[in-house]
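Lab notebook page, bench 4
Experiment: in silico fold of construct C2
Operator: M.H.
Input chain length: 135 residues
Purpose: comparison with the prior construct
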Amino acid sequence: PAPPYPEQILPENGEIKTSNADERIAPFEIRASEGSHYLVKLADYVSHAAVMTIFVRGGSTIRIEVPLGTYEMKYAAGLKWYGYEHLFGATTGYSKADAKLDFIREGNEVSGYSVTLYTVPDGNLRTFTIDPSEF
């Protein structure tokens, strides 16, 4: 059955929503597989408060800057977009990375990350499924 809310136009690739005014200087690259779109959420590792979300269209790569900090990375995935309240509807898949992401500055160097949102042989970032309430 069709959901009780209307399908919406996909956000722009790389659309960012932030809840933090800190300067964004650390590089973050996200590669997404074909077949799903993703809403990636970075949350403070200690407080679990959302810092920013990034929309990534399937089959694309985005490069952005994020505030310095230590984050947990979660993402929602799906095909049809129903807006920021309903995400990808009842079929939304929710996942979380098993490692923290440290975006830090050491001297003049700022460390960043590149993540791939599909299976990478011998990859070093593992994810696990989470309940929608944990997103």
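Observations: Residues 83-86 form the longest helix (4 residues). Residues 74 and 96 are 4 Å apart (CA to CA).
Next step: discuss at group meeting.
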